[in-house]
Each structure stands twice: as C-alpha cells, then as structure tokens.
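Feature request, filed as a ticket because there's no other form

It would be nice if the structure record came with a short human-readable summary line next to the tokens. Right now we just get the raw output. Example of a typical job, pasted below so the devs can see what we mean:
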Amino acid sequence: MDTPTLNLSPSAAARVAAIAQRQGKAPLLRLAVEGGGCSGFQYRFELADAPDADDTVVEGDGARMVVDPISLDLVAGCTVDYVESLGGAAFKVENPNAVAGCGCGSSFAV
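Raw output as currently delivered:
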C-alpha cells in the first residue's frame, strides 16, 4: 500500500520550528481532524512530544508533521502551509479531499 502524500511547506515548517523553540519542544506538529466546525470537520493543530506508533510522519525543512490513521483518510494528499495576511496568521490546509469549506478555512466537508 502506498503512503499518502502529505506536505509541510517551508513557511509552515519554519513556523513550527519557531513555536517549538519558544516552548522548548521538538519541532513536531500534529495535524488531526475532528468533528465540528461549520462544515462538518475541523482541523486541529498542536505540538506533539513524539509520534505515536501508528502515525504517518512527514519531514520537511527541519520540522516534522504527524497524522493519525483516522485523520489521514481525510487529509491524504494535503499540503499544510502557514500564511500571514491582513486578517491574521494561521496554518492553512490545502486539502484535495474537501468538497466544501468555510470562509475561515478551518473547517471542511468531504
């Protein structure tokens, strides 16, 4: 079975590294999907201490991202980016599996 493609952009990796350094943690971002949000599912980001045994791990530009198997089904093929705009700064998921999303980009439907 092929491992689904996940990408962590250079700007996202740099942001993860900066946050982790301030908190004295490893640059390891956990991306999870949970029910909720205005479109049905929402993304959750947090720093992880270590990958779980069944996590998919992606490395890029000095940081790593981990995704659990259930969330992986919903985000396979995605790219996680970090964007700054007049409206604020946030991690943004470009998810090819999403058929609908909300205006803020934090929730989606499949």
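Something like this underneath would help us a lot:
The chain has one domain: 7-109.
The two ends are 22 Å apart (CA to CA).
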